[in-house]
């Protein structure tokens, strides 16, 4: 195993000597302030697995303002704008209901389009507030009658009050400075207040049938499971009082594993023995399985994409991975299309990202559409067929 000194010390225990599990490469849109490569590392002291990213919290903060993929309600999750997302949020709201009370001040940090606040409010008349870095999300929430502020964990709005219940749902896996984030949350929490944290569950990555390296992207830089979330809590003087193992259903019967915890600030928690984290072997197994799957994807692309014009459908993380790690790197890409209006206009794979309606017009003879979408690839293939039945598609 390859040992090194990390540029980012372990965000749970501060250890600086780490083991490298794998190096990841991404093709990013021009101007993206995130790294095009980082080492996935494991901390030999506490067992945590994370991205040794060379970028700072400020770089990530800027990214989430300028490149948010949670703004466009038609493509994003988090707004309860499609059936699967609504189902996921209703399940979370059902589990959280026992912690809610009328007039309770509830704050969702990183609320996106506010789907969880809306589903919670339907069940209990809470005083719901949201904070998000993306201006469009904040505007939408205010227009719908919620209290909302633009901000993020590293820069919370001033005088935004204190809260009885704070939610960090699918947020902490994006944060460079975890201790700083938990300290900022504590300042907003009323005495006896509770914090709900939900993240992907890295102890189950290897059990899911999803595209190779799906769980590793430029945004997810911490890989938690219940034990590591508890350990992070202990290190920062938070006590875990409840936890839940979740399975979020994705289209076509695929699953996304997640872990949820209720934490309470407790100075004596600091003295507790942290739970041991056993993620390294599970994530190493996931990396091995991904390498095998990637090999198969490369084989399917090798003959198909060379010597002909390619349209890439998708400029998200699936495309970011395949463009750096497959024959797509050498392909002649003539257009990139994406439904996400926040991606349109950005420069990706030597093209300006267009809407499918624009990008699929007047294509050269023999063009192939390569669909780079981890979850909705089959739906996109049907959509291409509706738009232009003669256009061949490939799902790597
Ligand atoms: Zn550690």
Helix count equals 10
Average pLDDT number: 93
CATH superfamily of the largest domain: Vaccinia Virus protein VP39
How many structural domains? 3
Query: From the helix content, strand content and strand pairing, which structural class follows?
Result: alpha/beta
Order of helices and strands: EEEEHHEHEHEEHEEHEEHEHEEEHEHE
Query: Largest sheet at a glance?
Result: 7 strands, mixed
* Ligands bound, unique: zinc ion
Q: Tell me, briefly, the overall form.
A: globular
* CA-based gyration radius: 21 Å
Tell how many strands the DSSP assignment holds.
18
CATH class of the largest domain: Alpha Beta
CATH topological fold name of the largest domain: Rossmann fold
Produce a short descriptive summary.
Helix content is 29%, strand content 27%. The chain contains ten helices and 18 strands.
Q: Keywords for this structure?
A:
single chain, 396 residues, alpha/beta, Rossmann fold, 3 domains, 7-stranded mixed β-sheet, 5-stranded antiparallel β-sheet, 10 helices, 18 strands, 29% helix, globular, binds zinc ion
SSE diagram, text form:
Elements (H helix, E strand, L loop, with lengths): L1 E4 L11 E9 L11 E6 L6 E4 L4 H10 L16 H14 L8 E5 L5 H9 L3 E6 L2 H9 L3 E4 L12 E7 L8 H11 E12 L21 E2 L2 H10 L2 E13 L3 E12 L14 H26 L3 E5 L3 H9 L6 E6 L9 E2 L2 E2 L3 H4 L8 E4 L5 H11 L5 E2 L2
Parallel strand pairs: 5-6, 5-8, 6-7, 8-9, 13-14, 13-17, 17-18
Antiparallel strand pairs: 1-2, 2-3, 3-4, 4-10, 9-12, 11-12, 15-16
Helix pairs in contact: 2-3
The chain binds zinc ion (ZN).
